[in-house]
Specification:
The chain is mostly helical. It has a domain at about 10-75: Arc Repressor Mutant, subunit A, CATH 1.10.10.10. It has helices at about 10-25, 35-45, 45-60, and strands spanning about 65, 70-75. The longest helix is centred in the N-terminal third of the chain and has 16 residues, at about 10-25. The relative contact order is 0.22. The model is unreliable at about 85-95 (pLDDT under 50).
């Protein structure tokens, strides 16, 4: 999972969003994104914290949520969004 450290001055949901964005940037694909409850367990945070993190990622244009199907990496990823890979535009590798 890397260097996830929710302690500090930043809001926990922003730290989670930044960490997921970094995972997307590093691998170029994180599609579909695991379920919110699974991410909450993985990060050791509340489900609502992950829900707010997912909202941040949607606002950044990094992910899209399809009701009843899940959350997916946006295709194509915006080049200027925080966490968007500069060289990877498609979905090339699993996390």
């Amino acid at each position: 999972m890397g260097d996830f450290n929710p302690q500090g001055s930043q809001l926990v949901y922003v730290v989670v969003a930044d960490h997921v964005a970094a995972r997307i940037r590093t691998v170029g694909r994180y599609s579909p994104v695991p379920a919110e409850r699974d991410l909450a367990q993985e990060y050791g945070v509340a489900h609502l914290t992950v829900r707010r993190a997912a909202q941040v990622l949607r606002e950044r244009g990094l992910v899209e949520t399809v009701h009843g199907r899940g959350t997916f990496v946006a295709d194509p990823l915006p080049e200027s969004a925080p966490g968007a890979p500069a060289q990877v535009r498609g979905r090339s590798a699993d996390m």
